[in-house]
Amino acid sequence: MCFGKGMENKKIISNLEDIVNLIEDSARGYRHLAGHLENSELQTIMNRLSQQRKLFRENLENDARDMGGAISTDGTYKGYFHRTWMDIKSTVSSTEDETRIEEAIRGEKHLIEAYDKVLRTEKLPEYIIERMEEQRKLIKGAVTQLKEFERSMVQ
Q1: Deepest in the core among 38, 112, 113, 130, taking most CB within 10 A?
Q2: Which of 144, 139, 6, 5 lies closest to 60 in space, CA to CA?
Q3: In terms of pTM, does the model score above 0.85?
């Protein structure tokens, strides 16, 4: 029985590590975005979202530690290339800020999908489910906010 529980925890920790690395990508992406936007209000929002993602990451790292695991948070290569793609795409676009926001939305939707997968497939402790559902809700709120900014830029 103990062996099964240990294996179950390892799988949960592994999945949390995947989420944490995507959150790290999101934090870096927002920080990167803030440095490239011209709109100061958007810069402030991007910096705030970057800080929020860092808090998300720290909370899930602590949860993994409580379960007996350690998480490496280097981000992902995919996240690095996504940030690079945002830069390239915005240089050929007539509306750089709008293009960057579109890419941020795309990244956040990917993060929501990752949350959904873990929440759907893992037998997580209730406190982690609650934390992840709250984080997911806030990520969805950020997507809504970004879409509103995107719409206002088009008008």
Answers
A1: 112
A2: 139
A3: no
